TrEMBL record:
Name of the molecule in the record: DNA replication complex GINS protein PSF3
Compartments where found: Nucleus
Record-level GO cellular component terms: GINS complex
The protein's role, per its UniProt record: Required for correct functioning of the GINS complex, a complex that plays an essential role in the initiation of DNA replication, and progression of DNA replication forks. GINS complex is a core component of CDC45-MCM-GINS (CMG) helicase, the molecular machine that unwinds template DNA during replication, and around which the replisome is built. The GINS complex plays an essential role in the initiation of DNA replication.
Matches recorded under Pfam families: PSF3_N (PF22466), Sld5 (PF05916)
Native organism: Seriola lalandi dorsalis
GO BP, one annotated term: mitotic DNA replication initiation
CDD domains, sorted: GINS_A_psf3, GINS_B_Psf3
GINS subunit domain sequence ranges: 93-185
Keyword Nucleus tagged: yes
The family this protein is said to belong to: Belongs to the GINS3/PSF3 family.
TM stretches of this protein: none
Length: 211
């Protein structure tokens, strides 16, 4: 029987996270530009460009996503989170014009996931960010799936190198479906067999029958 040492866990959807997913773990370490809204005593060693003992109010620095979310509070202003440039107005204009020309892997590679996480932070631009994420996904989806269906037994590295991690997963699913269909069409599909649960249940029923 074939066994796998690791079964991949799918990342969370939208603003949710799955902490058993390697992709979500890597995403949580993406660094965000923040501005401190109060003094952080005796934490100056975290800011390498400063020799002071404390992190002063108004200091601009970068923190990982998980820490930024932990420090961010709507009522008590501890830190304010700035938008990464790829989600700002300039880049949103590019995405809205033609999302297919953008190399999302170079921009991310977790463009959709990080953009969804940015909605945790209050910003007047959140509705526009959400709309751009949706329209970008819709605009690139058909091309991604068409590419996966027209690359049977071919080198696909050039096709996927510009894709975001979510799009790469969709591409692999499309390829898997295509390969399965081609195998079925050629009569190479594996024969259907009964589930091991069904077989064990039948064996149990036989042994339970009194002599």
């Amino acid at each position: 029987m074939d066994t796998q040492s690791y079964l991949p866990v799918q990342p969370g959807v939208g603003m949710e996270e799955n902490f058993l997913s390697l992709d979500d773990i890597l995403l949580s370490h993406d660094r965000l530009p923040i501005r401190t809204e109060c003094t952080f005593p005796r934490l100056g060693f975290l800011e390498k460009s400063s020799d002071t003992q404390d992190i002063a109010e108004g200091t601009k620095m970068e923190l990982p996503l998980w820490l930024s979310k932990g420090l961010y509070e709507r009522k008590r202003r501890v830190v304010s989170v700035e938008l990464p440039k790829v989600y700002r107005q300039g880049w949103r204009t590019v995405f809205n014009a033609d999302p297919n020309v953008v190399d999302l892997h170079k921009m991310g590679p977790y463009y959709y996931s990080l953009g969804s996480q940015m909605l945790h932070f209050d910003s007047p631009e959140n509705p526009d960010i959400a709309q751009t994420l949706l329209q970008t996904f819709i605009g690139r989806f058909r091309r991604t799936m068409d590419s996966s269906q027209n690359a049977y037994n071919e080198d696909t590295s050039a096709l996927v190198e510009r894709l975001d991690c979510l799009e790469k997963g969709l591409f692999r699913s499309g390829q898997s479906g295509l390969n399965g269909f081609q195998s079925w069409e050629k009569g190479q599909a594996t024969q259907l067999t009964a589930s091991s649960l069904v077989l064990n249940y039948r064996k149990r029923k036989i042994t339970d029958v009194p002599p």
